[in-house]
Amino acid sequence: MSDFPEIKSTHSLVAKYVTKPIWDKLSKVKTETSGFTLAKAIACAVEFDNQHCGIYAGDWDSYKVFADVFDPLIQEYHGIAADAVHTSDMDVGKIQGNIDPTAPVHST
Length: 108
Known about the structure:
Elements: H1 13-17, H2 20-26, H3 38-41, H4 43-47, H5 62-65, H6 67-78
């Protein structure tokens, strides 16, 4: 087990959710896809003192492998509950708004 890192971004969400017990549990784990580690994921919060979130997923399975960190961090950042469900509705006919057809850019 590697030493618990000094997180320079002390007010970041990483500082809140990467606790010593979580670090001890996940610090030696690597993702299967790319060998990404928790240390790599939180490197910006460790190196810099101005991060708000302070974490990056190195590959798609980072979210599952490091779920003990990513899940509560994402939930707090986005203000969603742990049981929140994302739904997509791609029916363009349901889009409502006041998009100006004379505007040079039509985007949302």
